[in-house]
Amino acid sequence: MKNKNWLSVAVVVGILLLWQGVAMIINAHYILPSPIQIVKKIWELKENLFLVQMPATLKVTVIGLAISIVLGLGLAVWMDECPALEKALYPVIVATQTIPTTAIAPLFVLWFGYSIWSKVLVTVLMTFFPIAITVFDGFKSTKREMEELLTTYGASKRDLFWKLKLPTALPSFFSAIKMAIPLSVIGAAIAEWLGAQEGLGYFSKRMMTQLDGAGVFAPIVILSAIAMLTVFIITKIEEKWITWRKD
Questions:
Q1: How far is Cα 137 from Cα 169, in angstroms, rounded to an integer?
Q2: How many CB atoms lie within 10 A of CB 141?
Q3: Cα Rg for the chain, rounded, in angstroms?
Q4: Residues 6 or more apart whose Cβ sits within 8 Å of residue 239
């Protein structure tokens, strides 16, 4: 495990050094700012970025992700319990992912204005699909032999769900959450980019109009750090909770 961590650190350091070198060669910070320039910009604008813009983006991300989890889990359970519903809803769920986010986001702004809900809807649109489909596949991975065995012992449909299907689908649920977290951050940023008055995506767009390359990248770095930290925390929770996964 330690060797893997060191390898990851080495790769990140190598990418940053390469980035720094290329940026110094190009010497055009409005096109490609160096990592050092980005860190300086984050420090210069720390109060605005961390106290004003980041809370606005986190609020959108958390609300959107929470709605996606409830909606995705509900759809997964519903489709697992009703095969006819699965055939009816599955194509619709897939079709929602073919809608270009950059095309639908301005419509949400027209419908809901610059309120938080126009941005939350974009986040939900991008994140509920992996949760619903991945958890549904987790339910379907339950071994038929185990279901038949528990049924012969007198297990009810509810017992099968709570004692067999749910534990089987838990690894899929955590995988879905780890996929949805970066997507929720991206969704919030895209929505803010296309129509907002605050947030890291909005701030990045504003910096682009000023040809401030470091200012454009600074919110992106913060968003990436938030997503990576959250996925790391979820992974640790998964390791503590699902102790039987490797077995």
A1: 8
A2: 12
A3: 22
A4: none
Q: Which two tokens stand for residue 92?
A: 């619709």
Are the C-beta atoms of residues 241 and 171 closer than 8 Å to each other? Answer: no
| Residue carrying the six token digits 């204005």 | 113
Residue type present at position 189: A
Query: Residue 34 corresponds to which tokens in the numbers above?
Result: 């160096």
3-state secondary structure of 10: helix
Q: What is the mean pLDDT of residues 205-213?
A: 88
Q: Model pTM?
A: 0.85
Domain boundaries, the chain: 1-32, 33-241
Residue 142 carries which DSSP code? Answer: S
122: pLDDT strictly greater than 80: yes
Statement: 33-241 belongs to CATH 1.10.3720.10: yes
pLDDT at 3 over 60: no
Q: Over 60: is that where the pLDDT of 174 sits?
A: yes
Q: Tell me which of 4-18, 58-72, 199-213 is least confident.
A: 4-18
The maximal CA–CA distance of the chain, rounded, in angstroms, is: 73
Instruction: Write out the two tokens for 194.
Output: 């296309």
